[in-house]
Amino acid sequence: MFPAILLIVSFLVLIFVGVPIAFAIGIACLLTIWELGLPMLCVANQMFTSIDSFPLLAVPFFLFLGRLMNDGGITDRLLKVADAFVGSVRGGLGHVNVAVSMLFASISGSAAADTASIGAVLIPAMKKAGYPVPYSVAITACSSILGMIIPPSILMILYGAFGNVSIGALFLGGIVPGVLIGFGQMAYTYVLAVRYGFPAKPRTPFGEKCRITVRALPVLLLPVIILGGITGGVFTATEAAAIAVAYGLVLALGFYRNVRLAELPGMLSEAVVTYALPLFCVATAGVMGYLIAYLNIAEDVAQLILSITDNPIGVYLMIVVFLLIVGTVLSPITAVIIFLPILQHLGDVIGTNPIQLGLVVVICLTMGQVTPPYGICLLIAAQIGEVPAIKAFAAAAPILLIVLAVVLIGILVPDIYLFLPRTFLPDALI
């Protein structure tokens, strides 16, 4: 019992005093291993094992693809498509914000990249058009989390790799909740637009819509290539990421010609550095995951929860509350690696489908991207909008309730999450 307490308490204390997450995890694990008398070599072994994963190679490819999209003018074309189709609806720029995030999500898989690239364009535009600044920041941050829900999702890749769950099935399962969240955010925007008189842009003529769509068609084909290839069994998620980058390079260098060949080394190095930082966290979190399993903490937590309630819905609700709390202080990637053994053990006990559980975990943890103090997407958007983060969070709270409602619907009606995986990848649900 003492080693488990030492692991948890030392980790929390280190975070409280401001030690970076990766080092807090590593130090807590070293103290626990020393207390248990285990060989220190197991730290290096577990760190290597945690990152020695072929699916993890998809992450740097998608990070590079996101950078390529921004510098290659691809994001601008997605903005024009979204503006042409939903900009004329009451509260047009708010709808454009959500719609372009849905399109961006289907390519990049990163919420922070979505916030930075789209927010830099739309937040100033919304301020100029008379939208309340807290709302402009909130809708940008909240819609950006679709980048981790609508496939391809970097967080789903990590969950599938470490949880031995089909990444393709997770991708398919994320489509319906992602679209529901996007439409829910648009509905909320429309209600606010009617109540407060948000402006609408002039309607785009049909012919112009067609021209804009045709120009952006090569970009819009990218998610079809990624998801179609994975679900069709043509290639894995990692191979899909590599193919997507190759396709993106053709668009950026040859088709749109907004990126010069000399710029690629800098873009590649930035993607590597961006990947290396969370990868170190993944490595140390893998050691903590090993200790959680070694100390049977997952079983103890499951017994504690089941002593309170053995109702599957009740257990699910406790998982949701736990994830929402964890998401406020840990990055989604770190939280998945550390707590995956506990979450999957609870899922096995209540007999839930692994795909359904994975989607609940992913969506709940993505909400942490908007909730202080971690809330990286909220902080980025608030900085762009030059508004205090607390005001932005107050405006974001009703939008986050929409996300939470989709989570609860998926718990009560599993087919919302499982319909597409069951249809196209039935073997993954066995």
Describe the structure.
The protein is mostly helical and 430 residues long. It has two domains: 1-38, no CATH class; 39-429, no CATH class. The chain is 78% helix and 0% strand. It contains 20 helices and no strands. The protein has helices spanning 2-16, 21-36, 41-51, 58-71, 74-86, 92-108, 111-128, 133-144, 154-163, 167-196, 206-231, 237-255, 264-294, 297-308, 312-326, 332-350, 354-367, 376-385, 389-412, 415-424. α6 runs antiparallel to α10 (167-196). The longest helix has 31 residues, at 264-294. The model has no long low-confidence stretch (mean pLDDT 87).
Key features of this structure:
single chain; 430 residues
> What structural class should be given to the helix and strand makeup?
mainly alpha
Low-confidence stretches: none
How much beta, percentage-wise? under 5%
Proportion in helices? over 70%
Radius of gyration (CA) equals: 22 Å
Terminal-residue CA separation: 36 Å
Largest sheet: none
Walk me through the topology.
Elements: H1 2-16, H2 21-36, H3 41-51, H4 58-71, H5 74-86, H6 92-108, H7 111-128, H8 133-144, H9 154-163, H10 167-196, H11 206-231, H12 237-255, H13 264-294, H14 297-308, H15 312-326, H16 332-350, H17 354-367, H18 376-385, H19 389-412, H20 415-424
Helix pairs in contact: 1-2, 2-13, 3-13, 4-12, 4-13, 5-6, 5-11, 6-7, 6-8, 6-10, 7-8, 7-18, 8-18, 8-19, 9-16, 10-17, 10-19, 10-20, 11-12, 13-16, 14-16, 15-16, 15-17, 16-17, 17-19
